[in-house]
Each structure stands twice: as C-alpha cells, then as structure tokens.
Design goal:
- With 213 residues, this protein is mainly alpha-helical.
- It has one domain.
- The chain has a two-stranded antiparallel sheet.
- A hairpin with a 2-residue loop joins strand 1 and strand 2.
- The longest helix is centred in the C-terminal third of the chain and has 24 residues.
Amino acid sequence: MQTALLIYLCGVVCDFLINFGIFQTSVVELAAVLTGLVSVWLVKKENVWAFPIGGVSVLLSAYIYFKGNIYANAGINLFYFFMNIYGWYNWLRKTGEDQHLMITSCSRKEMQVYIVLMIFFFFGLWYLLGKTPDNKYAVYDAFTSSLYVIAMWLMARKKIQHWILWIIGDVVMVGLCIFLKWYFLGFQYLVYMVIATLGWMEWKYKVKGTQTY
C-alpha cells in the first residue's frame, strides 16, 4: 500500500510538471521542493537520511524566502539546518540496551509548555518583523515560524505531535505561496500536508515503541 501511494504521489508531481512546466519556477526552488519532499517522506518512514537531505532543502528554502522578503521563514530555515544536524545525531545515538530513539508522545504538561513557547515566539517575531521594511506578511510569517520552530524540535526528538504542527503550518503556507504566485513551492507545501497527515497516522500506530528506523 505504501509503495502504491508513493507511485501515486510521484504521478501527481509528474502531472503537475507536465501541466505547469518546471521552467515556470527557478532551479533553486525546484531543487528545494524535490529534496524537501524526499526528506519529509523519509521522516514518515523513520529513515535517518531525512536529515542530511532535509539540510540541503532548508538551505535552499532560506535563500528563496530571503529573496522574497519573508525574513522569519528565511531565518527559521537556517534554524532547521542546525536542527537537522541535531536530529541526525539524536536519531542515530543509542538510548540504552543498544536501542535507537523510539517514537513517543508528549505529555499534557509538555504540550502546555510548547504552546506557551509558540505564543511567545509568535508575538516576539510579529513585533520584530513589524519593524522591518518590505514585510507585508509579518503575521503569517511569525505564525508559521513559531509553529515550525517547535515542530522541528519535536521531530528531532521523535515526538508524534510534530506532525500536527506541520499540518497547521502547511495549510497557511499553501495559501501564502499561492498569493505570492510561488505555485511550485505552494504545491510542495500541499504535498507536505498530505505526507504529514499520513505520517501522523503511521507514527500513531508505532507510538507504543515497537519499531525504530
């Protein structure tokens, strides 16, 4: 079933390329999209190679956002780069008895702390971005960035709740990318949203900790 789904998603991507054309987007954006999609799929499958591939994707995305005056998302992608390094290390390290890091769920208290941190990041970023020139989308930029900071941290620690935060952020980013006419990048976030939903379902099945990558 997983193979059939992957073939279907590849078919969707190919159909998009045929109908819209890869030359309507930059080479950098195309590379960011493709490496990003591969990385998210590998996270879903608990494959540690998601992190080095993801590192390439976020560096390219940081460049794109900076050029588009989406400064918080540019900065957050640089943060992702270092979190990819941490996640790579954390997923590979042994946690005892020759076991790799297992999928777990955040406690209610942990989630309350993360929600408070997201609110703090949101208002802090919104205030700072409001003082920068040429940033008309500060509220969206700050909102998605605050979600993604916590989501990336949770992903590096194999906490299942990271999928929910990615899904919420991806919904917002699809709308923003369409508005900015970044259609290919918007399509990337749409596919991210689908994979994140599937990842949530798959990790939910594994959350009791019987499998690793």
